[in-house]
């Protein structure tokens, strides 16, 4: 019984060692990719930001709509905690809608490109 546990522990140790070696090999063989010019880097960052803006706008609109629907339902049932929760939904939606103007004003692409 003890011998079997010892063999299992050795086997697990070998597997962990092999996994560590494979992870270090993959880490060392990864080729870093850089944009060829500053403008290409700026374009790549702006492309990613456009996707993020689109997602936050869609989620913001969804949260505001759901919040208003929940607010109407909670108000009709005179549910004070429900009204508070729905107000928080609306506030989160407005905050998500405010992400694009705020980030556009501070130009995040300039942080990563010269």
The end-to-end span amounts to 64 Å
Query: How do the SSEs run, as a string of H and E?
Result: HHHHH
Gyration radius over CA: 26 Å
Stretches with pLDDT under 50, minimum 5 residues: none
Helical percent range? over 70%
Could you explain the architecture of this structure?
This protein has 114 residues and is an all-alpha fold. The protein has two domains: 1-32; 35-112. Helix content is 85%, strand content 0%. It has helices at 2-29, 38-76, 80-97, 99-106, 109-112. Helix 2 runs antiparallel to helix 3.
Features:
single chain; about 110 residues; mainly alpha; 2 domains
In short:
This protein has 114 residues and is mostly helical.
Walk me through the topology.
Blueprint: H1 2-29, H2 38-76, H3 80-97, H4 99-106, H5 109-112
Helix pairs in contact: 2-3
């Amino acid at each position: 019984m003890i011998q079997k546990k010892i063999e299992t522990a050795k086997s697990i140790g070998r597997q962990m060692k092999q996994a560590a070696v494979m992870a270090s090999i993959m880490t060392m063989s990864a080729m870093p990719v850089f944009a060829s010019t500053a403008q290409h880097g700026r374009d790549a960052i702006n492309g990613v930001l456009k996707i993020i803006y689109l997602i936050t706008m869609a989620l913001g609109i969804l949260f505001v709509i759901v919040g208003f629907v929940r607010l109407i339902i909670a108000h009709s049932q005179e549910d004070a905690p429900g009204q508070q929760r729905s107000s928080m939904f609306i506030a989160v939606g407005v905050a998500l809608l405010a992400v694009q103007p705020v980030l556009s004003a501070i130009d995040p692409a300039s942080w990563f490109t010269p």
